[in-house]
Design goal:
Layout: E1 4-9, H1 15-20, E2 25-30, H2 38-51, E3 54-60, H3 70-76, H4 85-101, E4 106-109, H5 121-139, E5 143-147, H6 153-163, E6 168-172, H7 174-179, H8 185-192, E7 196-201, E8 203-205, E9 217-219, H9 228-237, E10 244-246, H10 253-272
Parallel strand pairs: 1-2, 1-10, 2-3, 3-4, 4-5, 5-6, 6-7, 7-10
Antiparallel strand pairs: 8-9
Bound molecules: magnesium ion.
Length: about 270
């Protein structure tokens, strides 16, 4: 499975487009507002099976999330905002059930900016939520993967140890560490490798210096500061064996599809090197 895959979104990308990129593996993102009925799951299952396409992860996103800058992320993303906690817990469990209907063995999301202080009420509440999601996922044979980037590798490692659930893992996104300014991605990968169950191949540049709260700029794969060649080499060295899921988040869909196609070509060349 050490070959390119694609991170794609229900409602934005159709499976034919993803297949046309020449990939057999991928990760499906579920927008916060999408209806998750058994009929919708059955449609996806039929489409995936007939395309011979394997999903390795189903990602949850939530209504009301805003990734404009770091304060917006802190205010709106993941399990941290108090007002949406109960609804997002229920939604995450529903995404786990949906993934189980598709036969997918891993779910993932951004949980947001967890405070570093383990006594902070938000830390305690988010830890409780993550345990709840892990226990629900474990009953379906799934892992629950946290997307990297919003905290340094050492902070994430300490949090995961504190949650203390065997199926809590990491979806490693090297660009996010750069975009959020939280650390050099290759070193972070070496630290986190034993917990990494899936990866994004995404690129980006560091935040502009002297602009408080600014995020860095996401870039087409190979054109940012990740060092994608070293990233793929390091994944191989640490024994990672899953698909290398190319992710591109730019708004313009034509540009995005073009960049995904280029990214898949680049990753295939690196994986086969
Ligand atoms: Mg990502």
């Amino acid at each position: 499975m050490f070959e390119p895959g694609v991170m794609f979104w229900a409602g934005r990308d159709d499976l034919d487009m993803v297949r046309s990129l020449g990939v057999r593996y991928g990760q499906l993102g579920i927008p916060g507002g999408m209806q998750l009925t058994e009929a919708v799951a059955a449609q996806w299952k039929t489409a995936l099976d007939s395309a011979g396409f394997t999903l390795v992860t189903v990602f949850a996103a939530y209504e009301g999330e805003d990734y404009a800058d770091i304060p917006a992320v802190a205010r709106t993303v993941g399990f941290v905002p108090l007002k949406t906690r109960a609804a997002r817990l229920a939604r995450t469990l529903a995404v786990s059930d949906f993934a189980a209907q598709l036969g997918v063995a891993s779910i993932a999301c951004h949980i947001g900016f967890v405070p570093e202080d383990a006594e902070h009420p938000d830390y305690v509440a988010v830890r409780r939520m993550v345990r709840h999601v892990c226990d629900h996922a474990a009953r379906q044979g799934q892992s629950f993967a946290l997307e990297t980037g919003q905290e340094a590798a050492s902070v994430l490692l300490r949090f995961i140890g504190d949650v203390d659930r065997a199926n809590l893992r990491i979806n490693f996104d090297p660009a996010n560490l750069i975009l959020y300014g939280t650390g050099e991605p290759i070193a972070a990968l070496q630290t986190l490798a034993p917990l990494v169950i899936s990866v994004h191949c995404k690129d980006g540049d560091w935040p502009a210096p002297g602009v408080p709260g600014a995020l860095g700029m996401e870039r087409p794969l190979g054109q940012g500061s990740v060092g994608i060649e070293r990233f793929v080499q390091t994944l191989r060295k640490v024994g990672f064996g899953g698909p290398l899921n190319v992710e591109r988040e730019t708004e313009d869909q034509q540009e995005r599809i073009r960049d995904l196609a280029e990214g898949v070509r680049l990753v295939r060349a690196l994986a086969e090197a």
